[in-house]
């Protein structure tokens, strides 16, 4: 068995706010999004060897380890060989960027093993540039413009996925309008009230569209409020939603209640402090 050389976490991406501000001639939508990362994520381990991928973890069964897997695509883009082990803790295709986070973690890990980061990482997926940073950021364009933000308060949160697959193209097609204003100026947030006050002035424009495809998303948001969340919203194109809570104990209690619906529900943290890279 080969020795693991590098372990990289691949934290879940959350679009705390997401405005659709336009549409390009090729049909792709222009976004303005406040992105942050959660304490929960996948994990990638790299060791020297020919290019290979092995997947374990709670969501391994839903994911093919073939050549299209974003871990392998990332290594090929970097021109690097490595034996990759992925622990898939995040639901697949659920609006929290698990595939992009995995690709970014592979690229970061390969960089630690001496391989240069490839240019145009966004070719792997729109969320890969922000996932490479894995820190709070404003994301614009289709994801290629990433501006790091000073930081966000670390807050208890719960993620819920109702187990319904939502197609990203279908959600974009279901949009009623594509000309939202940009996000309001993003101040420094010193506490939960600051952040929630700012979030209340924003939207996830994809949420209403996703709800037409998967009405259960509305039930998830209602259940978050019933469980004491101070704020609840869908991330990305769904169907995963997040709720913010006043304490870690309340988040854990809420996750227990939300699981009773038969949904994947996990208590974690928003923007946990991570050691500097
Ligand atoms: C919506 C976001 C927000 O962070 O998150 P997720 O829901 O993926 O987590 C991303 O922009 C998702 O980007 P990405 O992950 O590359 O989307 P894909 O699944 O590759 O895109 C599928 C399709 O959705 C449409 N699409 C996607 C992104 C975009 N900015 N405009 C679009 O119109 C296009 O029809 C595209 O062919
Ligand atoms: N390592 C990976 N993890 C998750 N999805 C992957 C991976 N590799 C390829 N994919 C594919 O990428 C697509 C997007 O997955 P993901 O990034 O989890 O979702 P989303 O873009 O909704 O946040 C899925 O359809 C999945 O089949």
UniProtKB/TrEMBL annotation:
Entry EC number(s): 2.7.1.148
Protein name from the UniProt record: 4-diphosphocytidyl-2-C-methyl-D-erythritol kinase
Enzyme class label: transferase
Catalytic reaction(s) noted: 4-CDP-2-C-methyl-D-erythritol + ATP = 4-CDP-2-C-methyl-D-erythritol 2-phosphate + ADP + H(+)
The organism of origin for this protein: Paracoccus maritimus
Domain annotation GHMP kinase N-terminal: ranges: 73-114
Active site: 13, 127
MF term (GO), any: 4-(cytidine 5'-diphospho)-2-C-methyl-D-erythritol kinase activity
Pathway in which this enzyme or protein is active: Isoprenoid biosynthesis; isopentenyl diphosphate biosynthesis via DXP pathway; isopentenyl diphosphate from 1-deoxy-D-xylulose 5-phosphate: step 3/6
Phylogenetic classification of the source organism: Bacteria, Pseudomonadati, Pseudomonadota, Alphaproteobacteria, Rhodobacterales
Gene assigned in the entry: ispE
Residues reported in the UniProt entry to bind ATP: 91-101
Known role: Catalyzes the phosphorylation of the position 2 hydroxy group of 4-diphosphocytidyl-2C-methyl-D-erythritol.
